[in-house]
Amino acid sequence: MAINLQKGQREAINAPKFTIGLGWDTNSSSTGGSFDLDASVFILGENKKILSDAHFVFYNNKKSPDSAIEHSGDNLTGEGAGDDEQIKVDLSKIDPNVTEICVVVTIHEAEQRRQNFGQVRNSYVRIVDASNNQVLLKYELEEDFSIETAVEFGRIYKRNNEWKFEAVGAGMKGGLQDYLNKYN
Ligand SMILES: [Ca+2]
Ligand SMILES: [Ca+2]
């Protein structure tokens, strides 16, 4: 049975292969234009920096160099229930220098399109066991973001050789470049 997490809660991930599923719905009628959210991951070492430029996995770089982390591809609308974008993780392949995988969702061209997370509904991140498709952990972002254009949904990190997930839910006004600056 899935464990529903509260913001800040941490739980062990008891699966060597799992999918990070991210879902959202957008209210495009309020802005008129299209509304595109993008999931990305930053694969970090002990120093909280990406191991290399290729360890920033997103719609234009869908696979990490060790093939442990793979992005399902760009969903342009977020329409419908269920995962809108997914990231597959195979811990058996992961570079031993990796200690953290940071999962963020940003709004494509948020500034030009005048969009923010206040117009986003039903957003969640979940961890699904790849061996049997069971949902292990789920975090629904209930916070009412207003001006934020980027949100760190969660992070997966290694402590004493155990991988855990933390429900983060930290928003900011910015985009992918701001995360790149932080983790580079
Ligand atoms: Ca997208
Ligand atoms: Ca959706």
TrEMBL record:
CDD domains: TerD_like (cd06974). Keywords: Tellurium resistance. It comes from the Bacteria. The keyword Cell membrane does not apply. Residues 1-183 form the TerD domain. The keyword NADP does not apply. InterPro entries: Stress/Tellurium_Resist, TerD. GO terms for biological process: response to tellurium ion. This is TerD family protein.
